[in-house]
Amino acid sequence: MSISLKLPSLDDNPILLAETRAHKINEFIQRLPFGDPITAATDLIDELQILNSQKVAFSNRLNALDLYRPTAIQIYQDLIPHFSSASMPLSKNQQAFADAAVQLWQEMAFGYKFALVDLQNKILNLNSKATAQVVQRAIHALKEIALVYHLGYRSPPASLWSELHQLYFCALQQSAEKLAVADQLAVNNLSSVNLVYTHMLLMALADPQHLANADILKTDTYLSNIAAKAELRPLGLIDNPAGVFLVELNSDKAPVPFAKNQAVPDDATDILLITVNLARQIHQHIKSLKEGIVPNDGCLPINALESHYEDLLSRLIKNFGKVQQRIFSRTKKSDGIELGIGLIATHHIIHEIGNTFTKPANVIKPSRWQVLNVSAGGYALRKFSSSQASAYIGDVVAMKNSKALSWEIAVLRWANVNSLNQLDVGLELISPNASAVSIKLENSAAEGEALLLPELSALKQAASIITARGFCKAGDTLTLNTDSNSKQILINQLVERTARFERFQYSLI
Fold first, then answer.
1. Torsion angle in degrees (nearest 10) through CA of 7, 8, 13, 15
2. What letter does residue 151 receive in the DSSP assignment?
């Protein structure tokens, strides 16, 4: 397998010499404007670009990069809040922070890849520990770039996957993949090529396009704590394909479930990722949370119960276990559809417009989207470039096409921003209609909007109510107010919780 890493061209006659003296680098770091993360990132990127444009001795380059790296991490962590909780698509300002984060890690990756090339060019390179360090650092930089892409609901580019696999292959060639590497971000401050590579593979398998952005960050942290439970090994006999994924080191693709692979695996370049033990660990964490106990192994935060980590872990265990099958087939369709996105917008549209289709001036107006395909369970849509709409994973949505007589209710399940900067989303239908009500929590001043979904006997679906997340819980009593009457209900079983709403069964009092 040939190795071809993407690197900038070197300048044989640079105007500015790269700084590699430790005391000068530390002075530069102290002058960085940390209160302004964009400017600090830009300044550090400029310095790294100088280093990455010149021939520098291996030890000098590696020492300089390791001096810059903690600062790069600090600046990156200051950049993340500016885009990691934003709606889709990102605004120009939010995208600027994301772009700065990508460029910062791209330069760090360039530096460590240059260091790896220097090692490979040595006549006798017996330093597996040095190889482990530079490869681990380079893969970590690529992993963080991929995380920024995930947070913006973009697929990491194929070139990133190609380089990731090549870097791991280099470590395998020198038996450096399991050697311990000091890393301030890792559990017990120790990492390895295996751990950081596995972490990135698992993150891709977690299907972040279906996760709310806050859950993407939670998943990234959680996987860093349990990645060691997954196993990377050569091809071999497979008794049960559940929890087995194929990683093609000579490809530019993320891992795929072994059961879905069509081609004959290549012993020379293909390996397996086994997640059986990792899934068992997640199952144990779910079991503890259901018992009201936060595991004391350090894998979950102390507020895991209050922040409903059980929901996230239940989703993850499905991704790392049995291969999921599509229930419904898709049919391509070219049409337009109107959406009201979010609980408040959906409530107002249903309350004010109903089935009359009149649109008073003070009503929240629906946005227009293009239909890409449909199935019995939902729609894939694309936002028109002229639309100002924004959305979050887990939003409740009111939707109506030109032929419909009422507003259907759906949930926004996934999102993807493609290479043309177009936002595509997937909606799952949950009800053919809904009623808009205002709600008040008994013995509290809390009031809000809610949607009543009817019973669907054919689907064995009980009547339910959608409220803002955290507004109420099972056992609470709510007063429902409509334009014509008022009634009380008892909140019963939780049907679903997303990052944006909760849905409960209820009974009249």
1. -130
2. H
pLDDT tens, position by position, 79-93 = 999 999 999 999 999
- Domain locations in the chain as residue ranges: 1-217, 331-431, 435-508
- Name the pTM for this structure: 0.93
Instruction: Please say if the pLDDT value at position 272 is more than 90.
Output: yes
Q: Which two tokens stand for residue 458?
A: 């054919």
Q: Which residue is associated with the tokens 């872990």?
A: 313
* CA gap 36, 45 in Å, rounded: 14
- Which pLDDT does position 126 carry in this prediction? 62
Joined together, the tokens standing for residue 347 give 């409530």
Per-residue confidence (pLDDT) for residue 329, from 0 to 100: 67
Considering the four listed CATH numbers 2.40.10.220, 1.10.760.10, 3.40.190.10, 3.20.20.100, the one that applies to the domain covering 331-431 is 2.40.10.220
CATH class, range 435-508? mainly beta
DSSP-assigned states of every residue in 354-415: TTT----TTSPPPEEEEEEEEETTEEEEEE-TT----B-TT-EEEEEETT-SS-EEEEEEEE
Domains 331-431 and 435-508 share a fold: yes
- Burial zone of 370 (CB within 10 Å; 0-12 exposed, 13-18 middle, 19+ buried): middle
State the chain's mean pLDDT as an integer.
92
SS3 for 169-203 is HHHHHCCCCCCCEECCCCHHHEECHHHHHHHHHHH
